[in-house]
Amino acid sequence: MTQAADFGAVMCERLALVQQRNEAALAEVADVLMERVVEGSGVILAAGAGHSFNAVAEAFYRAGGPATVKPLHTPELLPVNGASSSTAAERRPGLAAEVLARAEPEPGDVLFVFSTSGVNFFPVEMAREAADRRIPVVAVTSRECNAAAPARAGSTLSEEADHVLDTCVRPGDVAYPPEAPVTGPMSSLANAFLWNLLLAELHSRAEAAGTDLPLWRSSNMPGGDEANAGLLRRYLPRVPELR
Question: Residue 1: is its pLDDT beyond 70?
Fold first, then answer.
């Protein structure tokens, strides 16, 4: 077996574990989304800093994804705008409150916070701020990393959240070689896998309820732009990032 095939086997094994451990949590989160977003008027607020913002981008304005996602962000949290400064920003108290306030959240919304370590001020305070507004918080994080990293914000994201989707990422976010991992970061893959497992669960529930999910179509396929036009008109007032 080549090294690439060996790494692929490691990833398949870990993702199978992710699916197994999150079966009950995925069902609970799907229930919340059905009530507050699909059948209600809320939107999905999605937050993440550093490379965890990859998961926010995966959730937002993506073919096959829900049109009800509003990204929470600020340029200083993105590594492409300054790598070391993005780490410093995530560790700065108070930034999450500013970002959430600008988003003008409403009581029917649901907050997803993506953070592998789950210990810096931005993800932890984001969860606290949402809880103060009685907005349910879904953490997409690694419980093992939460326990191993220094709790800079006094607690961890998994402790602050109402629901936890566990990425099962090992401390350090590397997975290969398995006996002494130094490369093969896993968190982006695990985040995307959990998100799409949730979408599959949500689709099944909506179908059983006779409800259509507001899902984006690919704008590069025939009919895509026309199908998306109605969703843009409907959600632009809550999600100005769709402009």
Answer: no
Q: Per-residue pLDDT tens for 31-76?
A: 999 999 999 999 999 999 999 999 999 999 999 999 999 999 999 9
Can you spell out the DSSP letters for the chain? --HHHHHHHHHHHHHHHHHHHTHHHHHHHHHHHIIIIISSS--EEEEE-GGGHHHHHHHSS-TTSBTTEEEE--GGGSGGG-HHHHHHHHTSTTHHHHHHHHT---TT-EEEEE-SS--SHHHHHHHHHHHHTT--EEEEE-HHHHHHS--TTSS-HHHH-SEEEE--PPTTS--BSTTS--B---HHHHHHHHHHHHHHHHHHHHHHTT----B---TTSTTHHHHHHHHHHHHTTT-GGG-
Report pTM. 0.96
Average pLDDT rounded to a whole number, residues 86-95 = 97
